[in-house]
Structures are given as structure tokens and as C-alpha cells.
Amino acid sequence: MNSRFLMLVSVLGLFAFSSALVSCGPKAFVKGGYDDVNRENLLNDEWSETDMQKTVAELVGRR
Fold it and tell me: Which pTM value belongs to this model?
């Protein structure tokens, strides 16, 4: 029983150590650009970003 407990603790410790080691690795960031927020974005016939922007502008009172 004692050896099983020791094996379990060893495996859990190794898992925790390897998880911590992997999380400290390099992070991948990609350079990209933002879309033009003033351009209409009509990708399909459903509710779109442009619809949302126009609705909010009308609710706020800017036209």
C-alpha cells in the first residue's frame, strides 16, 4: 500500500512539474492587422457587424 501511494505521488508530481515547465515555454503571437471599422462588413444575409453598428448609432443618436 505504501509503494502504491509513493508511485501515485511520484506520477502526480511529475505531471505537475511537466505542466509547469510547458506553461513557461514560448508563446506564439502572430502579427496581424485590424479591419477598418468604418467599412461595411456584409458577409451574409444574417445579422452582421454593420447592422449592429448602425443600430447602436441610431440608439445613441449619431447618424
Answer: 0.38
